[in-house]
Write a structure and sequence with these properties.
By secondary structure, this protein is mainly alpha-helical. It contains 19 helices and no strands. α3 crosses α9, α11 runs antiparallel to α18 and α12 runs parallel beside α16.
Length: 457
């Protein structure tokens, strides 16, 4: 099986990059985990694209916009529910596997409590932003229930630390298949918008239940987990800055939809969200790659700094090599993609997509950089750069949306992403090394792209 995974990766990756990472001592395990994650994403993206486009066409831009407006508010409160513990819990599980029950137990109780607070805040925010819109407030209240089960992420963190993502894939996809059929039934029976909000929430609840059941069947009962105040304090000391950074990050990612909805109406959110659906497909890729490679790279830092720096550069090179051709392809075919998938009511999303897709270049290197900042204990810098970029994004949206609508929001995203994930690295001595590594990857990326293009001719 490991041989098959290696063959698959050898076909997907450029030869030079594959040759370098294949020398890694953990390559077989990493290859297996990446193969499972890629297979999972290919399946989900295929199924999700089919169902998501069908829902968008059925609901139309206005109701589809309201649905995405509700999700935007929920996502902005996710950091409060998660407490920024995800990557820190994974890191602690990698470094201290003998303390896993204490780490998991403490994180679970903390996130369950914060999930309740986040849901209350979500409902309140819906009332504040849409005081006279009962439908919008109801959609937000229903979708916000997913914040209550955010604590199930501790199971995902456990399997991520063990590089055993396939178990999470099996569980989640089983539920996704069932609920995809349910969404088709809702479309065929001409169900109202609220039915789609309910089915999305119930799907998340059943995924969470499935993850806990899977863990207990393989690793023992969660009753064995230990909750220690000292451990909780230790985790929150390291994560509190990440909570604020997470708020700034998700506000940064979703505020465009909220501002579009409040300034121009739900229809503009629907058209903008159609572009983001296609652009967002590519957003999953760096999280798959970095999620599989980061634990091994962090381990190498504890043994050999030169090896750590070398593997970090290889990762940046790989991410740019993937992001660049996909951005070119989507930008050139945006008209065809929007009209063939979403139809004429969403035609305005094409110009938005042509701009927004280029933000993936900076996102790809940024996802990897975030892991390296954590390994170097640079949480304060994560917070400061994210807050600054968030302020830039909000200011640009406030200025550009009234003039250019969704296109202005896409421009604001591109500029702020370039600062957040790249430009700010040049401003401090602690991150100048990452700036050089990203610059090298971004400059050599077009050369690798041209070489690959020549090989394909």
């Amino acid at each position: 099986m490991q041989g098959c995974n290696s063959i698959v990766l050898s076909k997907l990756l450029p030869a030079g990059i594959y040759r370098r990472i294949s020398l890694d001592a953990d390559f077989a395990r990493i290859a297996g985990n990446m193969a499972w994650m890629f297979a999972d994403k290919v399946f989900r993206l295929g199924l999700g694209a089919l169902i998501g486009v069908w829902i968008a066409r059925y609901l139309g831009p206005q109701q589809f916009g309201l649905f995405n407006y509700g999700w935007a508010l929920v996502f902005m409160l996710t950091p409060l529910a998660s407490l920024g513990l995800g990557n820190i819990v994974i890191r602690e599980l990698v470094k201290k596997p003998e303390q896993a029950e204490e780490i998991l137990g403490s994180a679970l109780v903390m996130q369950a409590t914060s999930g309740l607070v986040a849901y209350a805040a979500c409902v309140l925010l819906g009332y504040v932003l849409r005081p006279d819109d009962m439908l919008a407030r109801t959609v937000v209240a229903i979708l916000g229930m997913t914040l209550l089960i955010n604590a199930s992420d501790v199971i995902r963190n456990w399997y991520a630390s063990q590089v055993q993502t396939r178990y999470v894939v099996w569980t989640e996809n089983a539920v996704i298949i069932i609920f995809a059929a349910g969404k088709v039934v809702l479309i065929l029976t001409k169900a109202p918008l609220l039915a789609f909000a309910w089915i999305a929430t119930i799907e998340s609840v059943l995924v969470a239940c499935g993850l806990f059941m899977m863990y207990q069947s393989q690793n023992g009962h969660i009753r064995w987990w230990i909750v220690r105040i000292e451990r909780a304090k230790s985790l929150i000391r390291e994560s509190w800055m990440l909570i604020f950074a997470g708020f700034a990050d998700l506000i940064h990612m979703r505020i465009d939809q909220v501002m579009l909805g409040n300034m121009l109406g739900d229809e503009s959110v629907g058209i903008y969200s159609a572009a983001l659906r296609i652009s967002g497909i590519w957003y999953a890729v760096p999280y798959i790659i970095v999620g599989s490679l980061a634990p091994a790279i962090i381990k190498s830092k504890m043994k050999d700094e030169a090896s750590y720096q070398r593997r970090m550069q290889h990762l940046f090179d790989l991410l740019v090599t993937i992001a660049l051709p996909s951005s070119v392809l989507v930008a050139l075919t945006s008209d065809m993609l929007i009209e063939s998938l979403f139809g004429l009511p969403y035609k305005g999303a094409s110009a938005i997509l042509q701009i927004h897709i280029w933000s993936t270049l900076f996102l790809y290197v940024g996802v990897a950089g975030h892991q390296f900042y954590l390994a170097d204990n640079l949480q304060r810098l994560i917070l400061s750069r994210t807050v600054m970029s968030c302020i830039v994004n909000i200011a640009l949206n406030y200025w550009l949306i009234p003039i250019y609508g969704g296109v202005g929001a896409a421009c604001a995203t591109l500029v702020s992403y370039s600062l957040l994930f790249y430009g700010f690295d040049a401003m401090t001595p602690h991150t100048i090394g990452y700036f050089r590594a990203k610059t090298k990857a971004l400059l050599s990326g077009p050369i690798r792209f041209i070489r690959l293009s020549r090989l394909s001719v």
